[in-house]
């Protein structure tokens, strides 16, 4: 079976091609799947997409018209896929329901430590042989409070690290995690978490109920010297409201690995382009804001697990089996999604 994989990063390609070797022929392309690139998939029954793919109804229709019947997305999130349209077209949609939670949790901590201790600002200075400490004072984390929104596998991994730092733990989720409560986490209303936490991190899925979870009201409730970290989905944070809060001199630091309008920007070299996104451009001007390019998941361990799950999804589709990764199976949505 010939497969076309969209949005394949250079470091990811060897993992993908090795995993499919001896099974199927994979054509890896570095462009992302959207309405302009969808015609590339003509003639391919199976398409593999990446996290920033546009799989809205019109793109799915183009794929289906070209013969695509199965999409294997190489990510956990699927807010970019119109599942109802996929079902109406008789497609099968698979994703990767889990991979190393440590990859994302550890990266979230890298962001938190970097903004707390001014690592990027310090590095930029020392490259110019400026060794002053002005503006680089951070805070001990021990004894301060970490607020974790979303305590699934990633949130729990983040919590274990916070516990190792000796932090007090507040959590917010629909279901309490025994792993977190054993570490001393106290579950509270999110309004209280926003008001009391010194470090706030987001690990919830992006659904309608969580879009702009961190909005102007949430930001107003936070401490003036709080640190906000988002390594989940960009839409969890109202970026315009965040800019307003930063302009007002609030928040000690912000670490963003994701951005709500990142499609078309992240994973591309835009260094010679004029950036028309005024909100992102303004965020970049704050010395206490660190923006990375949706790379929290990008470790050898996590990518290897993502690719293995993708191969399993393809094999199950071809043999008529289903698994927990299937969001749509030959035009059938799970009962919970209907």
TrEMBL record:
Report the protein name in the record. Answer: 2-hydroxyacid dehydrogenase
Task: Give UniProt keywords alphabetically.
Answer: NAD, Oxidoreductase
Please, which domain of life does this record's source organism belong to?
A: Bacteria
D-isomer specific 2-hydroxyacid dehydrogenase NAD-binding domain residues are: 110-296
Organism of origin: Streptomyces inhibens
| Coiled-coil region(s) | none
What InterPro entries is this protein classified in? D-isomer_2_OHA_DH_cat_dom, D-isomer_DH_CS, D-isomer_DH_CS1, D-isomer_DH_NAD-bd, D-LDH-like, NAD(P)-bd_dom_sf
**Does the entry feature the keyword NAD, yes or no?**
yes
**Any Pfam family the entry gives:** 2-Hacid_dh
* Keyword field contains Repressor: no
Name the protein family. Belongs to the D-isomer specific 2-hydroxyacid dehydrogenase family.
Q: Which residues form the D-isomer specific 2-hydroxyacid dehydrogenase catalytic domain?
A: 8-326
Name the CDD domains on file.
LDH_like_2 (cd12183)
What are this entry's molecular-function GO terms? D-lactate dehydrogenase (NAD+) activity; NAD binding
């Amino acid at each position: 079976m010939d497969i076309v994989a969209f949005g394949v990063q250079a470091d990811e390609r060897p993992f993908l091609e090795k995993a499919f070797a001896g099974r199927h022929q994979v054509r890896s392309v570095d462009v992302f799947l959207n309405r302009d690139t969808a015609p590339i998939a003509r003639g391919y029954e199976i398409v593999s997409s990446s996290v920033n793919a546009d799989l809205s109804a019109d793109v799915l229709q183009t794929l289906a018209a070209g013969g695509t019947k199965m999409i294997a997305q190489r990510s956990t999130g699927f807010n970019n896929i119109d599942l109802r349209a996929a079902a109406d077209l008789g497609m099968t949609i698979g994703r990767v329901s889990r991979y190393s939670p440590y990859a994302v949790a550890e990266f979230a901590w890298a962001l938190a430590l970097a903004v707390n201790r001014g690592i990027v600002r310090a590095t930029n200075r020392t490259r110019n042989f400026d060794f002053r400490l002005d503006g680089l004072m951070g805070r001990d984390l021990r004894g301060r409070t970490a607020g974790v929104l979303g305590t699934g596998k990633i949130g729990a991994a983040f919590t274990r690290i916070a516990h190792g730092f000796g932090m007090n733990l507040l959590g917010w989720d629909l279901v309490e995690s025994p792993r977190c409560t054993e570490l001393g986490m106290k579950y509270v209303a999110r309004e209280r978490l926003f008001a009391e936490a010194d470090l706030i991190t987001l690990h919830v899925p992006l659904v309608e109920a969580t879009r702009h979870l961190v909005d102007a009201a949430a930001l107003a409730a936070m401490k003036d010297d709080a640190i906000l970290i988002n390594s989940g989905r960009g839409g969890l944070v109202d970026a315009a409201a965040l800019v307003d809060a930063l302009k007002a001199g609030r928040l000690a630091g912000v670490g963003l690995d994701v951005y709500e309008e990142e499609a078309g920007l992240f994973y591309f070299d835009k260094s010679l382009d004029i950036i028309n996104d005024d909100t992102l451009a303004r965020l970049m001007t704050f010395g206490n804001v660190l923006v990375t390019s949706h790379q929290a998941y990008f470790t050898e361990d996590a990518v290897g697990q993502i690719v293995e799950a993708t191969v399993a999804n393809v094999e199950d589709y071809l043999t008529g089996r289903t698994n927990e990764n299937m969001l749509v199976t030959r035009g059938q949505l799970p009962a919970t999604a209907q």
